[in-house]
Amino acid sequence: MKRKIVAMSILAATISFTSLAENNNEAMMETAGKEIFKKCSACHSTDSSKNTFGPSLIGVVNRKAASIPRFSYSEALKKSGLTWTEANLRRWMAGNDILVPGTRMRHVQITDVAEQNYLLAYLKSL
Ligand code: HEC
Questions:
Q1: What is the pTM of this model?
Q2: Closest approach atom of ligand 1 to CA 104
C-alpha cells in the first residue's frame, strides 16, 4: 500500500513537472516570436484590432484570408481562397509573394522552421 502511494506521488510530480516545462516552453516560444515579429510590426499593429498599413493579425490563425472589413486588400489576396492555417502561414512567411503572386505585402522570407514556430506561437497568443 505504502509503495503504491509513493509511486503515485512520483507520477504526480512527474506530470506537474512536465506541464510546467511545457508552459515555460510556450512562453519562451512566444517571447522569441515577439522578437521576430519586429520584422512585421512596422505594418501590422497588435495593440488593438486597428489596421495600419497592413491588416490586424489579431486572431489571424485559422481566419479566412482578406476577411478584415474596411481593409483594402489586393485583388490577388481576395481571390486566393486561402485560410490562414498553420501550414499556409508557414508558406506565407517563407515567401508571401510566391504563395500569392500580386500581393500588396512586401516580400518576407522566413524559411527557418524554428523561427516559423516562434512566430506562430506569438501569432496564436495575440
Ligand atoms: C511593408 C509592410 C508589411 C510588412 C513588413 C509585413 N506585412 Fe503582412 N501584410 C501587409 C499588407 C499590405 C498586407 C495585405 C496584403 C494584400 O492585400 O495583398 C499584409 C497581409 C498579411 C497577412 C494576411 C492577413 C489577412 O487578413 O488575410 C498575414 C498573415 C501577414 N501579412 C503576416 C505578416 C507577417 C508574419 C509579417 C512579418 C514576417 C508581415 N506580414 C510583414 C504589409 C506588411
A1: 0.86
A2: 18
Extended beta strands in the chain, E state = none
Nearest Cα neighbor of 54 from 43, 64, 63 is 43
Q: Model confidence over 50-91: pLDDT tens digits?
A: 667 899 999 999 999 999 988 999 999 999 999 999 999 999
Q: Summarize pLDDT for 86-111 with one digit per residue, the tens.
A: 999 999 999 999 999 999 999 999 99
CATH class of the structural domain 31-125: mainly alpha
Residue 84, ligand 1, Cβ within 6 A: yes
**Cα 22 from Cα 3, distance rounded (Å):** 29
C-alpha cell read off for 60:
489571424
Q: Enumerate the domain spans of the chain.
A: 31-125
Cα 55 to middle of ligand 1, angstroms: 7
